[in-house]
Specification:
single chain; 173 residues; mainly alpha; 6 helices; elongated
Length: 173
């Protein structure tokens, strides 16, 4: 089952190393579609890209279909991530809690990546500026869920000693 807890095989000595590895993946999920988006957007602005293979009616409905799919992907990722974190037990070790947080964050990032790719596909098919707004919505969702030490503390609901280990970047056992 998708929500079952499993070991990610992630190796880290302290919270800073954990956060660096997690942020590296999240940054890649943001950067890869952004590169395609920027190239396509600049071509559209320079009028060197003009797709004419879709009719006006299809283009009109496609706006709403892709917007709905983007919203569904964002909400789906947030819900699945939260459900995965709900499986945390107060008796678990910090390392196990961080592994669950890692897999929940990556799951959320994959759904946001899917949303950004949909915005990019919409822009590719129609070259309409609506998809720039949709892409911006995806970037805002990425930024609102971007992992930080304080977000980890808040979302994992750590006790006082565990928070101290995370914030002070002490070695994690």
């Amino acid at each position: 089952m998708l929500l079952k807890n499993y070991k990610m095989g992630l190796k880290f000595l302290n919270s800073q190393e954990f956060l660096n590895k997690l942020q590296l993946y999240i940054n890649a999920f943001i950067a890869v579609p952004m590169l395609g988006f920027i190239i396509l957007f600049l071509r559209i602005e320079n009028r060197s890209y003009n797709p004419d293979f879709l009719g006006d009616k299809i283009t009109f409905y496609l706006r709403f279909i892709i917007f709905g799919a983007i919203i569904i992907l964002i909400v789906f990722g947030l819900i699945l991530s939260k459900r995965k974190r709900e499986g945390l037990d107060a008796n678990m070790s910090i390392r196990d809690k961080l592994n669950i947080y890692y897999s929940a964050s990556i799951l959320r990032a994959y759904s946001l990546l899917g949303a950004t790719v949909l915005a990019l596909i919409g822009l590719t098919l129609t070259a309409e500026q609506f998809y720039v707004i949709y892409y911006t919505i995806c970037l805002v969702a990425f930024s609102m869920t971007y992992p930080t030490i304080f977000r980890i503390n808040r979302e994992l609901k750590l006790n006082r000693e565990e928070r101290e280990v995370i914030i002070s970047r002490k070695k994690i056992k």
